[in-house]
Amino acid sequence: MSRKTYVFLILILGSLTALAPFSIDMYLPGFPAIAKDLHTTSAKVSLSLSGFFIGVSLGQLLYGPLLDRFGRKKPLFIGLTVYILASAGCAVSNSIETLILMRVIQAVGSCAASVASVAMVRDLFPVSESPKVFSLLLLVVGASPMIAPTVGGYVTSAFGWHAVFIILTGMGVAILLATVLWLPDTYKPDLTMSLRPAPILKNFLSVVREPQFYTYSLAGAVAFAGLFAYVSGSPLVFMEVFHTDEKVYGWIFAFLSVGFIGSSQLNTWLLRRFRSEQIVHVALICQVLIGFSFLATALSGMLTLPVLIVFLFLFLCCIGYTFPNASALSLAPFTRNAGSASALMGAFQMGMGTLISIVISLFEVPSAIPMVTGMAVSALLALIILTLGKRNITNLVSVSEDAGAGVMH
């Protein structure tokens, strides 16, 4: 594969992966405006975010078998079309109930892009390249939290929150055209893959029974839930507790994304010296220590805006190391049913994110403690899952810098 083709594929796969995060981040600065316009509260508006997570969780399980049965492109085209229509529906919503419904449908469409992109990493690149590719995808995805809330803040301030969803509709159209014109077919449809419920469930169970998959996918998902706690709680914490406006919130959100994206890129350098499983373990230990130090500071009443930003930055740095390595290790044992494995991994991530975002939305008190508690507890649970799960892995399929395939040890 030429360097030009490699970069081009990363950009397309990154755009697909970034669609859902962009849909999450861009409207966050508009929470107060949406609440005012739809005569509700910011806490209830956050349920539209939880609805998005629910849609992605369910949609991932739907698209996994479809991507294995029909190949990657046809289900992807259908999902992107659903996303475009639902984004337009969000733009014209006139009640919080309609917005939540449209967000669920929008999520179902967007997750076709995320599931397909992850599965195509396994199709297009050797196992040894997977952590690097996932790190590069995070670099492209990094444009979302760095650009989306900043742009969303200015767009909401100038044109209203409806304009945000008009922009998302246009993005969906552009990405659909790019996939139709330039994305190669990466997987031959498996016509033996049944779409009946029983065989699909059996296929999912065969994936879940793999100790390496359930250990690293669950640990990674629970650790990643800390990011969802931050995303769900940050509009209230920054704009209602610390009284920043939409534009300032957008810039802070963009700055904090530097930690997440920067560490994911340093991960490629660390992989030259350490194995993925080593990096995940150390990163989770650091995440736990930072999370509970953060919580202790919040409970003591010493949490100022600068201190808040520092702790969030460090916590997100840890996730930048955990996510690409846990993802690569989760998918490493699979070839034939990589689509189903990718879907399950994504469903675990979004399922945990949904749960923690719903819990945080129930607390309408003006405090950072619910958000910080969610972040600390998620890190601790992830470390416990990893520690217990590793005992059941007898033949770890690792990823090696100098090997073209998985390494058993």
TrEMBL record:
It is a multi-pass membrane protein. Belongs to the major facilitator superfamily. Bcr/CmlA family. The keyword Cell membrane applies. This is Multidrug effflux MFS transporter. PANTHER family: MAJOR FACILITATOR SUPERFAMILY (PTHR23502), POLYAMINE TRANSPORTER 2-RELATED (PTHR23502:SF132). It comes from Dyadobacter sandarakinus. Residues 7-391 form the Major facilitator superfamily (MFS) profile domain. Keywords: Cell membrane, Membrane, Transmembrane, Transmembrane helix, Transport. The chain crosses the membrane at residues 45-64, 76-94, 100-121, 133-155, 161-183, 213-233, 248-267, 279-299, 305-323, 343-363, 369-388. Its main location: membrane. It is found in: Cell membrane. Signal peptide: none annotated.
